[in-house]
Every structure is written in C-alpha cells, then in structure tokens.
Amino acid sequence: MNKGALDRAFNPRCVAVVGDKMGNGYVWLRSMSTFRGKVYSVQIDPQELPGIERLGIENYSSLLEIPESVDYVVVAVPRSVVPRIVSDCIRKGVGGATIFTSGFAETNTREGKDLEDALAKMAKEADFNIIGPNCMGIFNPKIGIRHDVNQYHGEAGPVGFISQSGTHAILFSLVGACNGIRISKSVSYGNGVVLDSTDYLEYLAQDQETEIIGMYIEGVKEGTRFLHCLSETTRKKPVLVWKGGKAEEGYRAISCHTGSMASSPTIWRSMIRQCGAIEVDNLDQMIDCVKAFLYLKAPLGSSVGLVAQSGGQSVVIADAFAQAGLTAPMLSRSTYREFASFFNIIGGNYLNPLDISWHAPSIDDSIRILNILSTDENVDSLVLELSLPFLSQIWDYYPSYVDTLVKALGDFKDRCPKSFMIVISSGQLEVEALGIRKKLIDKGVPSFPNFERAAKALRTVTEYYRSCGDSD
Amino acid sequence: MNKGALDRAFNPRCVAVVGDKMGNGYVWLRSMSTFRGKVYSVQIDPQELPGIERLGIENYSSLLEIPESVDYVVVAVPRSVVPRIVSDCIRKGVGGATIFTSGFAETNTREGKDLEDALAKMAKEADFNIIGPNCMGIFNPKIGIRHDVNQYHGEAGPVGFISQSGTHAILFSLVGACNGIRISKSVSYGNGVVLDSTDYLEYLAQDQETEIIGMYIEGVKEGTRFLHCLSETTRKKPVLVWKGGKAEEGYRAISCHTGSMASSPTIWRSMIRQCGAIEVDNLDQMIDCVKAFLYLKAPLGSSVGLVAQSGGQSVVIADAFAQAGLTAPMLSRSTYREFASFFNIIGGNYLNPLDISWHAPSIDDSIRILNILSTDENVDSLVLELSLPFLSQIWDYYPSYVDTLVKALGDFKDRCPKSFMIVISSGQLEVEALGIRKKLIDKGVPSFPNFERAAKALRTVTEYYRSCGDSD
Q1: Of residues A103, A244, A430, nearest to B346 (C-beta)
Q2: Between chains, do B346 and A102 touch, taking CB under 8 Å as contact?
Q3: Do A243 and A342 fall into the same domain?
Q4: Please, which residues have CB within 8 angstroms of residue B333's CB and are 6 or more apart in sequence?
Q5: Coil, strand or helix: which one is A247?
Q6: Nearest chain A CA: its distance from B353 CA (Å)
Q7: Is there a contact between A106 and B311 if contact means CB atoms under 8 Å apart?
Q8: Which of A93, A229, B194, B250 has the fewest Cβ atoms within 10 angstroms?
Q9: Of B65, B97, B128, which marks where a domain is finished?
Q10: Contact state of A282 with B316 under an 8 Å Cβ cutoff
Q11: At B414, which CATH number?
Q12: For residues A75 and A98, is the Cβ–Cβ distance under 8 A?
C-alpha cells in the first residue's frame, strides 16, 4: 500500500470517472455531483457525450488530457479495456483507482482470472493503489465523494466501514443514516486484488476521523498480517467484524461474488475474538452495535433496570435481556421504599422488571421512575419500553405529547450517568415508530425495534468495556 | 368449563359492560362500538352517565335490570365490587364474563389472593365461566367484539390466539393485521382462575373457524391435562406456543403479572415438542410462522433456491438459510443449461444462491428465472430478495413498476407448485417496504423483513410438514 497516494484517493481534490454511460444511468457522475472538488468525465463514445454535457461535466477522451492532477479515478469501462485505463492512471500519477468493472476472477473463467492477474501485476509493479475490481470504492461523505446517489453528503461522523461487498457498504450507509450513524470514510473493495481488507484496516486504524470500525469480510488474503493488524487496531478503537460465507452455500456464493477463498467459520470466530474484535452476524446487528457504541455511556456492569409499559411486556423484556446474558437484579432497599410511596401496583409492579402501566401515560411519572432507577447502585444500565399502540391513545388527544416525551427522555439521558436505551414496541404503528426513532436519535437517545436486538447491542457494549477494564 | 355457555360468551348476541368510565377513556364501550349485536352499559356513578349517553349506549344501574338475556359481560369495576357483579352475572344467567379488573393474586398481597380465591369459589360452584381476572377477554372480529379500539372488525380469518397477556393478544391482532393474518377468535385470560389455557385450547381445537392456533403462556395450572389437550389439538391443526418467563427475571415478572407459577424452560421446551407443538420465542417469530403457515404451500423438503439481487446479498442469504438448517443445493443439469443460454454472469451468478444483479430490473427476466427454478427437482422452496434501494432507481422512472412487479409475483405464486416467499431488503426505504409488504400479501405473497426471519419461518413450516409426513 502506498499510504500517501491512498490518502489522496480517500480525500481527493480532483476526481475522474472513466466510462460512465447512459446505460448505467450515469450513476457514477450523478453520485459525484455532491463532490466539493472538481469532477471530470473520460468517455470516447460520441453517443454518451450529450448526456455527460447535460450533467454539466467536462469530458475528455483520455485521462492523460485532463489539464490538472487527478487524485481519484473510478473506472467503469468494459473489462478488456481496464488494463489500458489503469496504465493511464499510473502514467498520470493518480492516487488510486476504483475498478467498478466486474468480470474478473469472480466469474471463475480463465479469461477473467488472467485479466485480474495482469491487472494485479501492473499495479504492484507501479506501487499503484487499485481498489477492487468488482466494487463500489470510496464513500467520503464530508467532501461529497459517494458511490450511490441515495447517500448523504456534507455531514460526517466517526464510523469507518470496510466492505468486500458494494451492496453492504451502501446499505450500511443508508440504514446507518436512519439510525444516527454517520460515516467518516467507507470503502467497498470487491475482489481486493491489490489492496485487501488489511490495508484498509491499517488505513482507518490511523485515521483520526474514525473512532469505530465496521467490516464486512468474505475472505482475507494475508491471514497473519490481517490478524496482527486487527489486534493492533482493537487496542485503539472498537472493530466489529461481520463475516459473510459461514455456510457451504455461502462459500459457493463468495467464490462467485468476489473470488475470495473463505475459511472455516469456527476458525474465523475464534481468531476474531482473540484479536479483541466484536463479531456480528448481519447488517441489523452491525447497525445496532455501532449505534450502541455511539450513543450509550459505557456500562459499568451487566445489571439492567428494565421498564416495560405493560405486564406482558415486563415478562418478555426480562426474558430477552436474560437470554442475552444480562441480569435484572432486585433493586436496593431505598429504591423500593421510594417506589412504595407512590407506585400503583394494581395492574403494575416495580420489582425489576418494572411494569409501569398506570404511570406510563404521565411523562412526569415516567421520568421520576427513571430518575430513581438511575441512582440505584444495583443497576448499571436502563432500558425503557415505549409501546406505541398504548401511547397513541394519548397522542391522539395531545398532539404535542410525543415531542414533550422525547425532550424529557433526551434531558434524562444527558444527566443520567448510566447507559440508557429505548425499545420501541411499534405494534401496527410501524411508520410512526420510524418517526419516533428519528426524533429520539436526534436527541441522542438510541432506540431499538425489539427487546432482542436491544439486549444484544447492550450486551456487546457491556462486554467490550468489561474486557477493556480487564486489560487495563 | 361450561362449553355451551362459553360458546355464548365467544359468539354473543347481547353484551354488557359493567363499570366503564371516562377515566378509562370508555375504552370498553368504544371497543364494543363495532359489535353487531346489542351493547348495554351498567354504571351507577351519575357523573359517568352523560359520557355513556353521548356514546349512544343504554345504561342500567344493575345487570339484573337489563331487559333481555345477556351472553357476555365485561367487568371493569373496582376489585372489591367484582364478587357482587359476578354474583349478578350468575343470577342473570350470563354465558361468561371477562374480569378486566386487576389487583388480585398478581399483587402478591393477602387481600388480592383472598379476593381471587373467593371469586374462583363462587364461579366454580355455579359452573360459571370467568375469563381472567386481570385480562382483556375476547376478540371476535367477525361480529365486532373487540378489546381494543385499534382492532379491525367485520373481517375474520382462520387464526385463533390464546394469550395470558392482554398486551400480547392485542399486539398479535394489530401486527398480524399488517401481515395478512386475520383472527377467528382470540382471548386474553390473565390470571386464569377459573378457565385456564387448557380450556381455551380445548375450545379452539373444536372451533371450525380456527385452522391454526397461537398461544402466549406464562404458566399452566393443570399440566397433565394441558399436555394431553395439546397433543390432541396438534393432530388437527398447527399450534404455536410462545412461553413467556424463560429466565429468573421472567419468572419474577410473571408472578407479578398474572400470578402464575412458571416451570423450568427446559421442561417446557421438551414437553411442547413432544406434543407436536411449535415453539416460538417472541411476537415477531409468532407473526412470521403464522404467516408462513397461512401463505406458503407445504414444502416437500428442506432444499431452497435462493435468489438475491446482488452478490453481497447472495452470500448472506445463503448464510441465513443454511444457519436455519435449510440447504441451497446445486441445481439440476437442465436448469444450468437453460441459465447458460441467457444469464449474464459478469456481475452475477446462477449456481444457487443466485445473484441476478443484471437481470433484476427486468420483471420478465426475474419471472423467467423463477419459472426455471420452480421446475428444478432439486429445489423444494423458492426465496426471492427484493432490494428496495436498487429497485427504487427503476421506480423513480417507471411509477407503475412496483404494481407490475407485484402482480407478476402474485401470478407466479399462484401457478408455482412450490412454496415461495419474498425477503424485502428495505435499506433506507423503510416506509416504502411496509407498502410493498402490504401489496404483496394482498396478492397472497408472504414477505419478511430480513433473511434470518424468513429462513426461520420457512424452516418451521418445512419441519412441520415433514413430521406430519412421518406420522402418516
């Protein structure tokens, strides 16, 4: 890896897209429309030129003709033309190139493999950074470098994402944005013939804007180097690893998807854990755990105070958190004394889990109960259920109810010294639940769509900080 | 159980609500506003009378004054008054009464336990059907008997639901309605002091309108009778059991919620399986599995043909289904021959899982691929991913795209002899996903919000039909 050049590719001032076309919806040029720097097109097909002109983008017939230095290139030409463009990139002194084009080793054909080998050889001899092929390359939202037209720009966050799959890179950014997760830099690297997962991990480990790293990996090329790098990185920041291809069927898909050799899931699992990384199993878990890291205060232990808005949910919230390995202990004597002074136990209960049925409509009561729990020494984290079918009967009459509730919960979170999360039981109000999730996260309060997902995320964060404490 | 009388309570022609009031939002009288028969109120507080009158409901100061026979009564009076009202019900010859009132054994107080014992004694001596106390009672949507104002009415379906918790009964009906699940009869029975889970199971086992039964149970009173009844019932229709209170914390919540004694989760699990029932762990799984039973053709085996709309998703769809115990086998030679004649493998793959990236925008291509898979003898079930971030780039230009796609998938499902399900990868388009789920289920096509949930539901249905085959 040529680190200085890769830095230019991740933080370019000038970008060129080679071979974008109408048939592809000009997806690359449109994605780059938010880029703060200069974007050029390189296209020789005269039929494509009017479309590119309509986008307001200057076109050249060769990279070499662009009248300034180019930091980052996206290559979207037919596979047989790729080597010539890469050669132009090298001559032009480009920082790095994303090869969007597919049709290489992942086709399991002689032709594809030969083309990929030629590409790798050329790049390695010239110490040139190829991202891909068969990938979506870089997403740097702060400066508007995108690989999908639906992605945000102009705002950024502390989360780095490294993904062998373009789909998962894009989905993480889109679903993440709905969950208050903003990206520093993300990269989809496909077949990874020159730069592989380890190179990107090394890069984001050093990146000052990146405080937490998520990875979607199908297979790595240099196992020992990867594990060493992973161990080094987890000492500085949390790393969450989602390994695709755990089953035989997954292996088969991988060999067709990115041409990687996948290794046994059991070996992966133990390796990843030994390196201090956190294993997740799918996109939802990745989103949940990253959100928990970003928005939860570090839990000091595994005890939770569980607050449900009905008796039925008090049973299943307890089940979910216990099954995730957390405990809902009996509370302290002073807490019970305080609850006994006002808590209505007819149709409710305050043992832990709490069923606050009769108090739930009152925001004051709810906050009072949370305040009491937050000072109980037996409790490390607090979880509150919001049941929308139940609360909707209030907001039908008081339209400002939700905003008042959300503000009160945001204020509580700010002053609560313990980790605090919400579980939204949406019932049929699924659209409303999305709106409330958004309002909550805007106030810094993380919410989860069911008890199981909340419990897993809290367990992950709790374990992480416990192991940090152990190693101190 | 007095079966004839219980039949009257489940299918009443005349209903009375005792003690509903403004402070409770007249929730019972409002819920009953959809009832096709006659509803009376019984209320002696003069302050409540104008509100009841505004609802257009005739009020009496005693049950005994109502000038006709009453089949079903909801009792919402303070707990100390409950025995007197039950005594009136008995004198009046009511079919059954739901005691909504709480404050009995679940409070763990002497007073509450004594009241509950007195109630049980009175009812048993008179062979009177008490539903509850501390519950929401009956939901019979066809005739408009509801226990929540958000529930539907006028339409019904083949699903019976028995729930110790009112919240879970209501949530199942509301979330179920979003998922194409319609209820025949449902009951929330709380503390279950007179009629318990076994009685309701026996009742729904015989009910001709009920083809599948879901249960949320915290604990049963007569274990042997329950297991016998469960075994008998599963010979006639699928029974799904969700056991609340699997952890110590859950036990604690249960004793406060419905006053039940919960038994060890391991014992429960093995008992339930031996009886031929299906165990689910939460509301989502209950919904998913019931939906799968309602909308999937019986799979002949555990082989799946998996179709993803990108390479990254082809890897994780394979992982999810394999981890659920299903297999994605290599396809037959003739299938591969047919695919080879048109399938673009540059950026795609048809081994199984399939990555149909380049064909996905074409509805014709997608259906062609599904048709080929549906005739492959190696495949028992078909799963298709719809990736909304990807498809939205098409529907942005062709607004009728989604409807055309949904119609084509509905037509395919109708003629496909195998089980067929959709997984919607919503990305950021979460609201749109809900709309598409609705359109699909209206055409009889079940969809699931992620691969894991789809895989679990398919596995459950596959195992059920395999074990039916074994016992034939």
Answers
A1: A103
A2: yes
A3: no
A4: none
A5: coil
A6: 6
A7: yes
A8: A93
A9: B128
A10: yes
A11: 3.40.50.261
A12: yes
Q: How far does the CA of residue B16 sit from the closest CA of chain A (Å)?
A: 23
**What are the tens digits of pLDDT across the range B166-198?**
999 999 999 999 999 999 999 999 999 999 999
Q: State the average pLDDT over residues A377-395.
A: 96
- Rounded CA separation A71/A86 (Å): 13
User: Which of B254, B353, B450 is closest, CB to CB, to A315?
Assistant: B254
Name the average pLDDT for chain B: 95
Query: E-assigned strands of B320-470?
Result: 354-355, 381-387, 419-425, 447-448
Beta-carbon separation of B247 and A322 below 8 A: yes
Q: Is residue B261 scored above 60 in pLDDT?
A: no
For residues A293-304, give the mean pLDDT: 97
Walk across the sheet containing B354-355 and list its strands: B354-355, B304-308, B381-387, B419-425, B447-448
Give the gap in angstroms from C-alpha A367 to the nearest C-alpha of chain B: 21
Q: B318: part of which helix (H) or strand (E)? A: helix B311-323
Same domain? For B259 and B315 the reply is no
Candidates A323, A65, A29, A10; CA nearest to A183 is: A10
Residues B408, B321: one domain? yes
Q: Which residue of B has its CA nearest to A101?
A: B347
Contact A175 B427 (CB under 8 A): yes
Find the domain containing B82 and state its range.
1-128
In whole angstroms, give the CA distance from residue B261 to residue B267.
14
Name which of A316, A350, A429, A438 to mutate to probe chain B: the one with the most chain B Cβ atoms within 10 A of its Cβ: A316
Interface test with B, best of A116, A249, A284 (most B CBs within 10 A): A249
With 60 as the cut, is the pLDDT of residue A472 above it?
A: no
Q: Mean pLDDT check: name the lowest of A104-118, A294-308, B47-61.
A: A104-118
What count of CB pairs under 8 Å joins A to B?
238
CA angle B402, A148, A64 (to 5 degrees): 135
- pLDDT, tens digit (0-9, with 9 covering 90-100), for B97-146: 999 999 999 988 999 999 999 999 999 999 999 999 999 999 999 999 99
Q: Report the distance separating Cα A131 and Cα A200, nearest Å.
A: 10
Give the end of a domain, one of A295, A328, A359.
Answer: A295
Q: Which of B102, B107, B287, B315 to mutate to test the interface with A (most CBs of A within 10 A)?
A: B315
Placement of tokens 């005693």 in the chain: B62
Give the residue on B whose Cα is nearest the Cα of A311.
B257
Shared domain for B284 and B300, answered yes or no, is: no
Pairing state between β B130-131 and B212-217:
unpaired
Q: For residue range A108-119, list pLDDT tens digits in order.
A: 899 999 999 999
Of residues B174, B387, B392, nearest to A428 (C-beta): B174
Residues B339 and B416 placed together within one structural domain of the fold: yes
Determine, for residues A171 and B425 on separate chains, whether the beta-carbon distance falls below 8 Å: yes
Same-domain check for residues B443 and B386: yes
Q: Mean per-residue pLDDT for A420-449? A: 98
A165/B312 CB distance under 8 A? yes
For residue A175, is pLDDT > 50?
Answer: yes
With a threshold of 0.90, tell me whether the complex ipTM lies above it.
Answer: yes
Query: Would you say residue B78 has pLDDT above 70?
Result: yes
Same domain (yes/no): B356, B380? yes
Name the residue of chain B whose CA is nearest to A431's CA: B431
Interface test with B, best of A139, A167, A191 (most B CBs within 10 A): A167
